[in-house]
Design brief:
Blueprint (H helix, E strand, L loop, with lengths): L1 H14 L3 H18 L5 H10 L12 H9 L1 E3 L5 E3 L2 H11 L4 E4 L6 H12 L3 E6 L2 H15 L4 E3 L10 E6 H4 L3 H4 L2 E7 L13 H12 L2 E8 L15 E4 L13 H4 L3 H14 L11 H14 L6 H13 L5 H6 L12 H5 L1
Parallel strand pairs: 3-8, 3-9, 4-6, 4-7, 5-6, 7-8
Antiparallel strand pairs: 1-2
Helix pairs in contact: 1-2, 1-3, 2-3, 5-6
Length: 353
């Protein structure tokens, strides 16, 4: 009866035109069904269809209409991997396949990499250029594309690499200018977090990104710019001639609690709240610290208050760090407690591990 009542609530929200809240409520319901080990009923599958979350359907309990949609929205995302896209991913992919230049604002959970990979797999462009904001993200993107497209494309991340018959260039904006002589012609030019071309968001790095966008746009047939949390696109030289899509399509539920209202600037209350949250949640947790000082403070807090896990893997990793780095280093003492650190000063090999 509780499940039916929740379905009724989702349907009422859809009827009222509140698709975003309907998706939120349905995602919560799906998580409850997962935790209870329950199959999706035909009604659940129909609601999944109505909110556009097609990949979430369970084919074995779906009606033939839902099974048809699940299959119809499948695409090859490279490397022989076939996935079902959700409604807005498919809308965006179709716009790109139609040859449109798109500037899109979508949540971080949207699944933008599937759209990029699907476009490459289907359209098979000769030269693809992808600008990303950091070296770490460039490396992550390279590894993803290498796995899927290395048999058909040369994945280029440094200027000393020779070109192949088909190429995918991946690099941060600071490296872009050094590549201008290599391209000649670009089939699709992709910029992740393009809003950082504005000095309002990144004063130090925006000039390099602006210069890269201007120069590479001149030799590109098509552009695809991505960013989160942009409500409108003001007239500017960088996105001239592009269609703007604001896709407020969440695929995960975000439970936000504003603890800072009761904590204020009390460091002890902040530490107590963090330890309480960690104690109440057994899953993976991401802690964001805005400065190196805060990273150090949190590291000390966790080293003092968390119990060691003593698994074979973590013990071996700690021993390796002690031998090759430093036995008294914060990371060496944190890994045995199941805690890692990622920041710009960390060796890239360690951040990958």
């Amino acid at each position: 009866m509780e499940i039916f009542a929740q379905c009724h609530k989702v349907n009422d929200l859809l009827t009222a035109g509140d698709d975003a809240e309907a998706r939120n409520e349905l995602i919560l319901l799906l998580e409850k069904l997962r935790q209870d080990g329950l199959e999706y009923s035909p009604l659940i599958n129909r609601l999944i269809r109505d909110v556009g979350l097609f990949p979430y359907m369970e084919e074995n309990t779906a009606s033939w209409e839902e099974r048809f949609i699940y299959q119809a929205f499948k695409v090859d995302v490279g490397g022989g991997e076939v996935v079902t896209l959700h409604r807005e991913q498919s809308r965006l992919l179709n716009a790109l396949l139609d040859g449109k230049s798109i500037a899109v604002s979508a949540p971080t959970s949207f699944g933008k990499s599937f759209v990029i990979d699907s476009f490459i797999s289907i359209r098979k462009p000769k030269n693809v250029v992808i600008l990303v904001p950091t070296i770490a993200l460039a490396d992550e993107t390279r590894r993803r594309l290498q796995k899927k497209f290395s048999n058909a494309y040369k994945i280029i991340t440094t200027s000393d690499q020779s070109l192949g018959s088909r190429n995918i260039f991946v690099f941060p904006q600071e490296r872009a200018i050094g590549y201008l002589g290599l391209f000649g012609h670009i089939d699709i030019f992709i910029v992740d977090e393009f809003y950082k071309a504005s000095r309002d968001f990144d004063k130090d790095r925006s000039p390099a990104l602006m210069r890269a966008i201007i120069n590479l746009t001149e030799i590109s047939d098509q552009r695809y710019f991505l960013a989160p949390n942009i409500n409108e696109l003001k007239e500017n030289a960088f996105t001239e001639g592009m269609e703007f899509l604001h896709l407020d399509f969440n695929t995960v539920y975000l439970d936000k609690t504003d603890l800072y209202l009761e904590i204020g600037k009390d460091s002890q209350k902040k530490s107590d709240a963090l330890l309480r949250i960690l104690g109440e949640n057994s899953g993976k947790t991401l802690i964001y610290a805005g400065t190196y000082t805060n990273i150090g403070n949190i590291s000390n807090l966790l080293m003092t208050n968390l119990e060691s896990l003593e698994t074979v893997l973590l013990s071996q990793f700690q021993a390796w760090l002690s031998k090759n780095y430093e036995s008294n280093w914060a990371l060496t003492n944190l890994v045995i407690k199941g805690v890692g650190i990622h920041n710009g000063r960390l060796h890239r090999s360690l951040s990958q591990i």
